[in-house]
Amino acid sequence: MGHGDKNNLKQRIQKFLVISWHFFRLAFLHVRRNDVVFAVTNPAFIIFILAVLRSFRRFEYILLAYDIFPENLVAAGLARQKSFHYRVVKKIFDWSYSRADRVIVIGRDMANILKNKGVENRRLLLIPNWSDCSRIQPTSPRNNPYLCQLGIQNKKVFLFAGNIGRVQGINNLLTAITLVKSKQAVFLFIGSGAMADTVRMQQAESRYHNIYYLEPLPLEKQPEFLNACDVAIVTLGTNMLGLGVPSKSYFSMAAGKPLLYIGEHDSEIAQVIAEEQCGWQVEPHEPARLAELIDLICALPEEKLTAAGQAARRTAEKRFSETVIQNRYGELFTSLNHQEKK
Asked: Domain named Glycosyl transferase family: which ranges (predicted)?
């Protein structure tokens, strides 16, 4: 890890500590016996703080797990699994997760990880994240303003949009791009993150000129830039199974784009793709196989891509729309109200 990365990490830890202290102070002052406390796993320190507070002040504690800490630090290369400090922190957070009355997970693979951390199965509840299927509608990439601006509207465009970070397996994807044979394939990256400079460097060096990069775009442009492709790329690096679910998948599905998922076959998004036939999956450490799959997708008849995109849209509406997921939360809080009245 470079000097700049270390300084940035220290600043983030300091920021999280300050935020967590404010959370603890507010919780200590305002949370009363028999209250219902709903928390998320960011910043991570709040998990431990609420677990400690709950030990001497009885309240209903619901934890929404977006991340699994500290295992995600190992996957990001920020901690060593065999180190003494990591093992101590892991024991603390395993205990902290297990103190919640309910733990909401956003993926089945995440539920398995939490069981291994000591969370009882009866306390786990699967509620995925949602996408805005009313605001994001499928449109043709052939007329997309971003693709027209870049002059690639008639190519087979593979879009990576979002955080270009350490755990996304960007090097694996970039290696695969160098192995792709199809002259129709182009790759558009939209976003920022720790690996964005690596993408820009390969863009400058690419002899095939098949990599394009745009800086992060405002949220109100999301319906346009999510439609700037034929296929949406969703990728996670190795050792990320169960540590997070790339929920941007559901937004690309809302845009009617089939998914090219680079991740482990028993992860949540891979399972959705297999169940709904709305894309393709490849393991995260096989760039040659990934390149072959991209070539295969480029050779598919247009109606095959269209059918996969339509399946993605149907799945987003059926399983991941705002209405569907909000109803799941409504059922949860209704059940809590009934328990309180008993």
From this structure: 153-314
Cα dihedral 82, 84, 88, 94, rounded to 10, equals 0
Q: In which domain, by residue range, is 309 found?
A: 141-320
Q: What is the pLDDT of residues 264-319, one digit of tens each?
A: 999 999 999 999 999 999 999 999 999 999 999 999 999 999 999 999 999 999 99
Which of these ranges, 51-55, 67-71, 76-80, has the smallest mean pLDDT? Answer: 76-80
Residue 3: predicted pLDDT: 46
The DSSP output letter for 79 is S
Judgement on whether residues 111 and 162 belong to the same structural domain of the protein: no
| φ, ψ of residue 76 in degrees (nearest 5) | -85, 0
Beta bridge partners of 139: none
Report yes or no on 165 lying in a domain: yes
Within a domain: residue 327? Answer: no
Q: How many domains does the chain have?
A: 2
Omega before 218 within 30 of 0, i.e. cis: no
If asked whether residues 109 and 146 sit together in one domain, one would say no
Identity at 60, one-letter amino acid code: E
Give the list of residues 6+ apart from residue 89 with CB closer than 8 angstroms, or none: 70
* Contact assessment for residue 235 and residue 262, using Cβ atoms and an 8 Å cutoff: yes
Q: By the 8 A CB rule, do 210 and 177 touch?
A: yes
Last residue in a domain, options 126, 159, 179: 126
> Residue 326: inside a domain, yes or no?
no
pLDDT one-digit tens code per residue, 298-313: 999 999 999 999 999 9
For 73, 222, 264, 285, the CA distances from 239, given in Å and listed in that order, are 11, 30, 9, 10
Where among 91, 126, 161 does a domain terminate? 126
Q: Tell me, yes or no, whether 256 lies in a domain.
A: yes
**Residue 36 belongs to a domain with what CATH number?**
3.40.50.2000
pLDDT tens-digit map of 125-137: 999 999 999 999 9
pLDDT averaged over every residue in the chain:
91
- The SS3 assignment for 16 reads helix
**Distance linking the first and last C-alpha atoms of the chain:** 54
**156 token code pair:** 């087979």
